[in-house]
Structures are given as structure tokens and as C-alpha cells.
Design brief:
Helices cover 37% and strands 15% of the residues. It is built from 5 helices and 6 strands, in the order ααβααβββββα. The N and C termini lie far apart (55 Å). Bound molecules: zinc ion (3 copies).
Length: 142
């Protein structure tokens, strides 16, 4: 049994070829737009609609097998790293996204002093800046 198949079964999800293909694409890492995921899934399966990929991503996200992020000004992106409340740093220049681990220790984000009675399950923190490539480009432009 493949790792993707194991993941689906462990969440009680039916094993389908589109689900396996999307998990396979996400397993390579990164934060991918639906368009890119669909392109890569089509390399593995003959025909799959964008809507089908959306449906699969919805099912995987609900099962905790993928995570949807949507930084301001960017289309939704999906990644396989889910459930650890990690954060993201986004480049203002090229839109590149990297993972940042959740601050743990004295002030973990999911443990706010006052949650106003809410049951908190996610702290959405986005760091903005310039990636190394864009920093180098900026220096070269000056
Ligand atoms: Zn950049
Ligand atoms: Zn991430
Ligand atoms: Zn955090």
C-alpha cells in the first residue's frame, strides 16, 4: 500500500485515483495553486477537471490531510503540511512562500491569554518581507 493510500485509509476516506494523485502532488512539498495542482495531476491521470481537483482538495482539507492558505493578494494555495499550525513568510516581491514554525514556549499562538470563550484551533500569522532572490535583485537595481 502506498503512503497516500495509507493516509486516506487512516482518515476513513475512500481511495480514488484523483485523491491519490493530488496527495502525490502535494507530497512533493510547497504551497501550490489549484491551477498548478491540476496541471500536475493531469500528468498522472488522463482527464480530471479543475472542479474535481477542488472537490478532492476540499475532502483532503476537511480530513486534515492538506491545508489551504490564502495570503492577502494571492489565490488560495494548498500544502500537505497540515495540523501543526505553522505560519508563512510571503515575499512582497515575487510572492514566494516559506514555512515558519509556530512560536512555542512562553507564548504559543494557539494559547492566547484571552480567547473570549472561543475554542481556538488556528492562529493565522503571516510574515511579509523580501526573499533572498528579491533582496539581491533590489541591490543590483540600485
Ligand atoms: Zn521574492
Ligand atoms: Zn506551509
Ligand atoms: Zn504560532
Amino acid at each position: 500500500m502506498s503512503r497516500a493510500e495509507e493516509l486516506l485509509r487512516s482518515k476513513g476516506l475512500r481511495v480514488t485515483r484523483p485523491r491519490l494523485a493530488v496527495l502525490d502532488v502535494l507530497a512533493a512539498g510547497g504551497h501550490l495553486e489549484v491551477e498548478e495542482i491540476t496541471r500536475q495531476v493531469r500528468e498522472r491521470l488522463d482527464s480530471v477537471s479543475t472542479q474535481a481537483v477542488y472537490d478532492v482538495l476540499g475532502a483532503l482539507s476537511r480530513a486534515g490531510l492538506s491545508r489551504r492558505i490564502e495570503p492577502a493578494g494571492s489565490p488560495a494555495r494548498f500544502e500537505a503540511r497540515a495540523g501543526d499550525n505553522h505560519h508563512h513568510v510571503v515575499c512582497r516581491g515575487c510572492g514566494d512562500i516559506a514555512d515558519i514554525d509556530c512560536a512555542v514556549g512562553s507564548a504559543p499562538c494557539l494559547d492566547p491569554d484571552t480567547a473570549h470563550g472561543f475554542e481556538v484551533d488556528e492562529a493565522e500569522v503571516t510574515f511579509w518581507g523580501l526573499c533572498p532572490t528579491c533582496q539581491a535583485r533590489r541591490r543590483a537595481d540600485v
